[in-house]
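In keeping with the milestone schedule agreed at the kick-off meeting, the structural modelling team has produced records for the first pair of proteins. Each record is given below as a sequence line and a structure-token line. The laboratory manager (R.T.) confirmed that both were archived under the project's standard naming scheme.
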Amino acid sequence: MVTPARPYVTVPGCGVRIYVQVMRTPAERRAGLRGRASMPTDCGALFVHENDDFWPYTMEGCLFPLDLLWLDRRGRVLDWYVGASPCQHFPCSDYRPIFRARYVLELLGGVSPVLAIGPGTLIDLRGALL
């Protein structure tokens, strides 16, 4: 029996592979990474939206800082927020992009600058969207 490959995205500039949990449904996107104790530096979450919009994200229920990256349909980083702080008490602040985006990639806080990921970086999404 063949084990299915883990979904991943690739940062072409440095060739780093980041394994992602793909969040496609409204319920998956609402749950996000809420309640998880930690996340390895080579993992993340890719939130897939049906259309381009100013998708707001909150850190409600998150237990560790995250980098939030809003991507266009080609995988180009349009906007980012590095080190969004966890929020355990409602109401939590929303993080909003300045451009309409199709995807949101969440990485462990501080990972994106280490990998030289920022606005304009093209992330290869093919390994996650198959």
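The second protein of the pair:
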Amino acid sequence: MHELSLCRSIAGIAGDHSAGHSVERVRVRIGALRQVVPETLVYCWGVLNEGTDLAGSTLEVEHVPAAIDCTACGAHTLLSLPALRCGTCNSSDVVLVSGEEFLVTSLDLTEA
């Protein structure tokens, strides 16, 4: 379960950037190709942070679908399967434009 180690990293980032404030919410953006189960990540967040400065904070996950742009025909395709082929012309000459994201996008902090 790599979600637990991901939560440890996210917690480290939140702790490093909270400037002594309590963290209410952490938002992350995760691409579909990262093989992360959002529900498991949220569950691990709660378990990992019990009894810490992050206890009671919530983890909000924004799912980013995998998408490609076709070099051959110019079409933009959202992928439902991890097959890198154009949905319009079936070309494999494509550029991956989203789906590999893993970003902490924001923290909601309490007032001092």
